[in-house]
Amino acid sequence: MLKPKKHIFVCTSSRPNGQQKGFCHTKAGVDILNNFREEIEERGLGGEVFISNTGCFGLCEQGPIVVVYPENVWYGAVVPDDVEEIMDEHIEGDNVVKRLEL
Amino acid sequence: MLKPKKHIFVCTSSRPNGQQKGFCHTKAGVDILNNFREEIEERGLGGEVFISNTGCFGLCEQGPIVVVYPENVWYGAVVPDDVEEIMDEHIEGDNVVKRLEL
């Protein structure tokens, strides 16, 4: 299969039973997810950059959480307006956004 | 932060709006997730092996899908009874389970 060069995971507090409770969901996790989806599409990166929503990572007090693999970089206290910078610097530029890194 | 050595992602078709529809959810995605959680706990690997449920990866016809990072290994048509083998061979043994790899 065509594997992603980068895979962005955004916590949306999506519980496996279909419920949705928790911190990241109430703190713009879904908006962050949607902003990443739009940026990936607008930049034509859909074939190489994947985006997924997830359940809780257990770091609620540091959320909203965004994780990028294969780098294993964890970002905390992300807001929707940070998405463009993460895309520019990290996803396209391969530089970790240090100010958001956990 | 303490980062995972391996991070297992299991599709449970968890949509960011809280709905839960799709293939993997109806095909034992939640049972697979729960089996991984039990195996990680029983083996005392909770500090180094993380497990998360996700939304759809867009590979429904090949599901249920399990992804392991940072290796970027994708498994398809996983059944709950495959979890022990993935834990033994891949998570603890660092050998990809070729028969399930996409």
From TrEMBL, chains A, B:
CDD domains recorded: TRX_Fd_family (cd02980)
Lineage: Bacteria, Bacillati, Bacillota, Clostridia, Eubacteriales
Highest taxon of source: Bacteria
Keywords: Iron, Iron-sulfur, Metal-binding
An annotated Gene Ontology molecular function: iron-sulfur cluster binding
Name of this protein: Ferredoxin, 2Fe-2S
